[in-house]
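Quick one: structure for this chain?
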Amino acid sequence: MIRIAERQDAARIAEIYRPHVEGTAISFEEDAPSALLDELGFTPLCRLSDTAFKLGRWQAIDWMELTLRGIPALPEEPISFSEFARARPGRLAGILGGAARSG
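Got it. Here's what it folds into:
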């Protein structure tokens, strides 16, 4: 069912989006604190002009990126499922346990 979000939905919405926004920078000011974002290592990706309507006028949204870890020069070679199961049984159990809970 799709409906308009209401005030009582706020806690559930925060719970849903928490893993995606925790540790990110967000500003509800008219001008983002660009010096702070630069200092933290954020890189501007794009500006979405006239995207959000707030305070009686259209606002722009700046999309920023922050690299959390270095990218290896070469990725690890893929391994078969059976190799993964032998090498990391605890990780496999965690994945399968999560799938059972969500399914």
